Amino acid sequence: MVSSLTKSGTSGLPSALGQNSAPSWGTIVLPDSALFGTDGIRGHAGELLTAPLALQVGFWAGQVLRANTATLQPVILGQDSRNSSNMLAMALSAGLTAAGLEVWDLGLCPTPAVAHLASTVGAIGGVMISASHNPPEDNGIKFFNPDGTKLSLSLQQQIEARLRGQSDDIVPMAANHWGKHQHRPELLSHYVEALQVPLTAQAASPLAGMRVVLDLAWGSATRLAANLFRSLGAEVVCLHDQPDGDRINVNCGSTHLALLQAAVTETSADLGFAFDGDADRVLAVDSQGRTVDGDYILYLWGQHLLKSQQLPGQTIVATVMSNLGFERAWQQQGGTLVRAAVGDQHVHAEMIRHGAKLGGEQSGHILCPHYSVSGDGLLTALHIAFLVQQIGCSLSELVDQSFQTYPQLLKNVRVMDRARRLNWQECDPLMTAIAQAETAMGDRGRILVRASGTEPVIRIMVEAESADLTTHWTKQLVATVEQHLA
């Protein structure tokens, strides 16, 4: 269900904008449920995400940010390569400047570049236009605090309350005080330097002699990744290395590894990396073409940090999706694995609570506060490549020496009705089926069912000691969701 919200005008543009009064901006359509999800605002461009909505989001976000800071500072703005990103970025910038803020526009860039610069140039915050790993027709708006972390729930709620007309408090501005929009792509050099320095401090050419294949997913990573790896000494083979809004994430990148796997084996590369559309996550492929997911990345990087006494409490924060094989292998080494809900905000919160310095998701979103304030696919890829180089053996050997995963199946069942999707626990047949599966498997496996926060799907994950058990119970649960919810 959606609701229409009209602020006096009908044109979608300001009909009357007093300096210290609420703007009049056409009609926008908001969902009845919360606008902000687990990773900002996300939906179909042209449906939920329109220019009028982005304009108002920008204005009210600017108002909220101004109300919560003592001094006026710029907002860092970035975008991925989607066809709708320019439209949304310009509308958002118009709203921010109408709120009296200066916008520093990076253009095409990785999401972590926005987070990094927000935390280092004295910005009031950051905004990224991207739908991450979603298909080209989707887009999203992600906000960051001045320290580079995701915008707090409290501030998101304040923005949404103003969008819904539940509050129209206006931060007073001096007469004719409007913000400015400035193109600042040169700021990306500071982000690149921050990625390079931790490695070049240890070796002049830290990736010398390595052949690396990079799948850039037609997205944000195309701006920097190839030159970054080459600058550190690697020989680079690139796939999908131009910004292309029609093909971003389509059969490529971190959600579709087949082409990268083939390229790594065909070119006899040491390893390969696949990024998602905004380059905040990465998956690896070893020289045999095997997938090295976020669990393996956390395990290998965790061992490395542990040896250098940089892993407090031997603690890694993962999510409920992480494999039992990973958890039990880490525990056998005397380590502690803390599980958080899915989403980097939840991982980050648990890391703070436990004082952890490494955390992440199986999907390849990795957080390491030693080097970055946010999940960063480029940073993770560089450090894993350098780790392999330092140890002196292949990524394949390191994976073989780590752990065996339990068979795990993840199925997405499309459920378009948002209310039914979010309230799946009220479906008695599904709850009964889950209880039957858990009883049958006992400690030989586990089940995770959850509604996606970014897509109209219910995700069903079954993990067990044997593939037969995994397949059987996955089929049972998928069929139940399809019959009673989809």
Descriptive report:
The strands form 6 sheets. The protein has a 6-stranded mixed sheet, with helices on both faces. 36% of the residues lie in helices and 20% in strands. The chain has helices at 51-67, 85-98, 111-120, 153-163, 188-200, 225-231, 258-266, 294-307, 324-332, 344-354, 377-391, 395-400, 418-422, 428-441, 467-484, and strands at residues 2-6, 27-31, 41-44, 75-79, 103-108, 125-129, 138-144, 181-183, 211-215, 235-239, 271-275, 282-286, 291-292, 315-319, 336-340, 359-360, 366-367, 408-414, 445-451, 457-464. It folds into 3 domains: 2-183, Alpha-D-Glucose-1,6-Bisphosphate, Chain A, domain 3 (3-Layer(aba) Sandwich); 190-400, Alpha-D-Glucose-1,6-Bisphosphate, Chain A, domain 3; 408-484, Alpha-D-phosphohexomutase, C-terminal domain (TATA-Binding Protein), CATH 3.30.310.50. The two termini are 16 Å apart. With 486 residues, the chain is α/β, with parallel strands linked by helices. Strand 11 (271-275) and strand 12 form a beta hairpin. The relative contact order is 0.10. Helix 1 (51-67) packs across helix 2, helix 8 (294-307) crosses helix 11 (377-391) and helix 14 (428-441) runs antiparallel to helix 15 (467-484).
Tell the overall outline.
Answer: globular
Mean pLDDT: 92
The computed structural class is: alpha/beta
Number of strands: 20
**Proper CATH architecture of the largest domain:** 3-Layer(aba) Sandwich
Strand order of the largest sheet: 3-7-6-4-5-8
What count of domains describes the coordinates? 3
Helix share bin: 25-40%
- Can you count the helices? 15
Oligomer class? single chain
Can you tell me the CATH topology of the largest domain?
Alpha-D-Glucose-1,6-Bisphosphate, Chain A, domain 3
CATH class of the largest domain: Alpha Beta
Residue runs with pLDDT of under 50 for 5 or more positions: 1-18
Rg computed from alpha carbons, rounded to a whole number of angstroms: 23 Å
